[in-house]
Design brief:
single chain; alpha/beta; Rossmann fold; CBS domain Like; 2 domains; six-stranded mixed beta sheet; four-stranded antiparallel beta sheet; 13 helices; globular; disordered C terminus
C-alpha cells in the first residue's frame, strides 16, 4: 500500500520546452514563437512542450506515454542532463539553469540518484566496486566506503555476490547493482528512466516490489519514467501522461481511471483491473456514515470487497488521521465499475 503524500514541492517545472534542430539545441528567447509553423520554418521541433508540474517530497511521480511522447526528455530537463530550451526547472527552490558546472556537479552528487534502462556497469569492476564508485570519486574515507557499500548490498539483496563481475550476474542482479550504486550517496531525489523495461515479466515484478519496499524504508522523492500503465499504477502516487511533448493529465491512478481527460488517456486505462486500482476513499460518500468497523481510505476495493458487499448501509471510511470520510456502499462500487466498463 502506497503512503499518502502531501509534502512541499521538491521539483518544480514551469513552462518547460525542449527544442531540437539541425544545429543543436539552444535556449530560446522568450520572444520566439513556439507554434509548429514557426518552429518548422526554423528547422526546429519540440520534444517537450510547455510542461508545468510539481513533484512533492516523498512521492513516486511517474511520467508515462508512448515512445516519442517526450517522457525521457522531460526527465533529462529535470536533471539538467538535457537543459530546457525555455522555462524553469527548480530543485528544492533552486533554479538549475543558473548553476555553474561545479554547482551542478555538487547538486547531482549530493541530491540526485539516477538509474537508466542501460545498467551502465563497469565490466572490470566487481559488484562491490561498482556500487562504491561514486563514493570513491567523491574521495570518501575507505571505512565509510566499506560500511556504506555493505549496507547497500544488504539493502538490495546481493549478499554473497560482492566479488562477482557484471558478466556473472543476471539482468535483475545487474539492475540491483545499478539501484544500489544510485543510492550509495544517499540522494534525496531519485530519477529512474525505464529501469525495468528490458527485464522479463517475473524479474520486473520482483524489482517493482523491491522499489516499493525501498521507498517505504528510505522515503525518497522518486521520478519514474515508463511506457507501461500497469507498472505506473502499481508504483505511482501520481501519474503524468504525455503525448507529443505535452502533459495531457496529471492525477492519481484511480482518478485517471474514473475521469480520463480524453480518449488518449482512456486508451491507457481500458484494460486495467479496476478493483486493483480503486480505493474506498475515492468512492466514499461523505453524506453517509455507514456501519461497522471503518475501512482505511487508502484500502483497495479489491482487498475489502467482501466487507463492502456484506453491509446494506455502507461501510465507514476514515483517513490516515482517523477522521470519517463518509461511507462506501456496494452501489457505489457497482456504479464505478459500470462507468469504467462503459468507456469505449
Amino acid at each position: 500500500m502506497k503512503p499518502d503524500v502531501s509534502g512541499p514541492a521538491v521539483i518544480r517545472c514551469r513552462g518547460v520546452w525542449k527544442i531540437f534542430g539541425r544545429s543543436g539545441v539552444a535556449r530560446l528567447d522568450d520572444r520566439d514563437a513556439l507554434d509548429d509553423a514557426a518552429l518548422s520554418a526554423k528547422g526546429l521541433s519540440a520534444a517537450v512542450r510547455d510542461v508545468t508540474l510539481d513533484v512533492a517530497r516523498g512521492e513516486i511521480f511517474v511520467i508515462m506515454g508512448l515512445s516519442g511522447s517526450g517522457k525521457s526528455t522531460l526527465m533529462r530537463c529535470m536533471t539538467h542532463l538535457g537543459p530546457a530550451s525555455r522555462g524553469e526547472v527548480l530543485i528544492e527552490g533552486q533554479e538549475i539553469a543558473g548553476l555553474s558546472s561545479d554547482e551542478l556537479r555538487i547538486i547531482r552528487r549530493d541530491k540526485m540518484g539516477m538509474v537508466f534502462q542501460d545498467f551502465a556497469l563497469m565490466p572490470h569492476k566487481t559488484v562491490q566496486r561498482n556500487i562504491a564508485f561514486p563514493l570513491e570519486v567523491a574521495g570518501a574515507p575507505p571505512a565509510i566506503i566499506a560500511a556504506r557499500t555493505a549496507e547497500l548490498i544488504g539493502l538490495v539483496g546481493l549478499e554473497g555476490r560482492e566479488q562477482y563481475y557484471p558478466s556473472e550476474l543476471s539482468g535483475g542482479q545487474k539492475q540491483r547493482v545499478g539501484i544500489a550504486r544510485s543510492l550509495v550517496n544517499n540522494p534525496r531525489i531519485w530519477f529512474l528512466d525505464e529501469p525495468f523495461s528490458a527485464l522479463d515479466p517475473i524479474i520486473r515484478y520482483e524489482l517493482q516490489t523491491e522499489l516499493l519496499r525501498l521507498q517505504k524504508e528510505l522515503a525518497k522523492t522518486v521520478v519514474f519514467v515508463t511506457h507501461d500503465f500497469d507498472e505506473a499504477i502499481r508504483l505511482a502516487n501520481r501519474i503524468a501522461i504525455m503525448r507529443d511533448g505535452r502533459v495531457i493529465q496529471i492525477d492519481t491512478p484511480e482518478r485517471l481511471v474514473l475521469a480520463p481527460a480524453d480518449d488518449y488517456v482512456r486508451r491507457f486505462t481500458r484494460r486495467v483491473d479496476r478493483l486493483a486500482i480503486l480505493t474506498v476513499g475515492a468512492l466514499a460518500d461523505p453524506s453517509q456514515a455507514g456501519e461497522g468497523e471503518p475501512l482505511a481510505a487508502s484500502a483497495l476495493v479489491r482487498d475489502v470487497l467482501g466487507r463492502i458487499l456484506s453491509t446494506s448501509r455502507g461501510t465507514p471510511v476514515v483517513d490516515a488521521a482517523g477522521r470519517l470520510r463518509g461511507a462506501v456502499t456496494k452501489e457505489a462500487v457497482a456504479a464505478a465499475l459500470s462507468v469504467c466498463e462503459a468507456l469505449p
